[in-house]
Specification:
With 430 residues, the protein is mainly α. The chain is 63% helix and 5% strand. The protein contains 18 helices and 5 strands. It has a 5-stranded mixed beta sheet. Strand 4 and strand 5 form a beta hairpin. It is globular, with a radius of gyration of 28 Å. The termini are far apart.
Length: 430
């Protein structure tokens, strides 16, 4: 009886509330205005500044740096030589590629116009050459879809782009480059195989152990496994976004303009849950911004060097009538793109933080680096960072930590003169 009374009260309250609001259309507008601002798709479409200004401390210019951390040297191609190469390539595109894509095909599926295929080809081909990814034949396909704003990748290096996505971005090559680079990144990072391996492990547990022992109780594990897979999938998406950002910067595309691809998703209904295969768009944008912060400033020159030293990749329509094939060159290179190791990533990020004066982050990453390498260099920079913090704060704890770190470095390289100077410096301060 009480439940019926409460229910009736709620219904009457709702009706009264609706009646009260309906008495004034302006009142309704005012009440809804807060949500209107919060959920405005116009605001979500806007592209925020992606290149955040890195905060530097007052004494950043006094940071010690014996230049012991080395990165790959990038050769710079003179502008005149590069432009001459691009002009030669343009002639090849006009004479050899466009005629291939103009060939008529019959298909019961979507058959993209030559101009659309050529648009995708030019973007993908530039990404592939700039990043030395021509180790396989890449296939780019267009799939008819009225409202499914999506792209995906499957086995055999096939990248699917739905027409809803392509039509939304066809005038923004930077955004399309990000989408294509994202799917290429999934292939380069082996995410499809990682997914299969995870599924195989789950099946072994379920079939070999849980069902025989727990029966239907194993469904609990299935539910947990689904959540674990969703979390792993979201991690894969973050990594593919990060690597795609690297790819497109090396190819000369603009991450700022590329964010339209994510902003469109952000403007449409979405909600990340524990079952989501993709992260919330706003988190993806934050991930990309942070990635840009740590990218090498030489990426663009490196991409130009790679394009200058490679030839136009051949292209033809596939036998499936819905994709194009970007063909790997007959003469194979021996220096394809190499995925960064954990050591490479930690070194790049830690050193960037250190040079920017963000010592707490630098120390954290240098410590992680020290755990996976036998080099004295991480400990040396940890000591520098703590000494810097001491000079900023005059807190003795930082000086003690600086001394401890350089002593660890001395154990690995006792005769190193740079270490000797730092030992002397922190001893004098003490």
């Amino acid at each position: 009886m009480k439940i019926k009374i409460i229910t009736l009260f709620l219904v009457l309250s709702l009706c009264f509330n609706n009646f009260a609001i309906a008495s004034s259309h302006i009142d309704r507008q005012i009440k809804a205005s807060k949500n209107n601002v919060k959920y405005s798709s116009v605001e979500k479409y806007k592209i925020d500044t992606i290149n955040e200004v890195t905060k530097k401390t007052k004494k950043a210019s006094k940071i010690k740096d014996p230049k012991l951390i080395k990165f790959k040297k990038v050769k710079t191609i003179p502008a005149a030589d590069y432009n001459k190469k691009i002009t030669q390539d343009e002639l090849i595109y006009k004479k050899a590629i466009i005629p291939q894509l103009k060939k008529k095909t019959n298909s019961v599926n979507v058959n993209p116009q030559p101009v659309d295929f050529y648009n995708l080809y030019r973007i993908a081909e530039k990404l592939i050459r700039a990043n030395k990814l021509d180790y396989v034949n890449w296939r780019i396909a267009v799939r008819k879809s009225a409202g499914d704003y999506n792209a995906s990748t499957t086995a055999a290096n096939l990248i699917w782009i739905n027409t809803a996505l392509y039509d939304s971005l066809y005038s923004n090559p930077d955004a399309l480059a990000f989408v294509i680079g994202h799917e290429i990144a999934h292939q380069v990072l082996g995410h499809l195989q990682q997914y299969e391996d995870r599924m195989h492990k789950h099946q072994i547990w379920i079939n070999s152990l849980l069902i025989p022992t727990l029966g239907y109780g194993s469904m609990i594990y299935v539910a947990i496994a689904d959540k674990m897979e969703s979390k792993a999938s979201r991690t894969d998406e973050y990594l593919a976004d990060a690597l795609s950002t690297e790819f497109l910067v090396r190819a000369g595309y603009d991450p700022q303009k590329a964010m339209e691809a994510i902003n469109i998703i952000n403007a449409h209904p979405h909600k990340e849950t524990i079952n989501s295969s993709h992260p919330d768009p706003e988190k993806r944008i934050a991930n990309i911004k942070e990635t840009v912060k740590y990218l090498s400033k030489d990426l663009k020159n490196e991409g130009k060097f790679n394009i200058y030293n490679s030839n136009v990749l051949d292209c033809k329509k596939s036998s499936d009538r819905v994709s194009i094939i970007i063909t790997k060159p007959e003469k194979q290179r021996n220096d394809y793109y190499q995925v960064e190791t954990p050591e490479d990533i930690l070194k790049r990020i830690a050193y960037t933080d250190y040079k920017n004066g963000d010592m707490e982050k630098a120390i954290k990453n240098f410590k992680s680096l020290a755990k996976i390498t036998e080099s004295y260099i991480p400990y040396l920079y940890i000591s520098y960072a703590y000494e810097y913090l001491y000079n900023e704060t005059k807190e003795d704890k930082y000086l003690k930590r600086a001394r401890k770190a350089i002593e660890e470095a001395a154990k690995l390289a006792p005769d190193n003169k740079t270490i000797g100077r730092q030992l002397k410096a922190v001893a004098e301060d003490l």
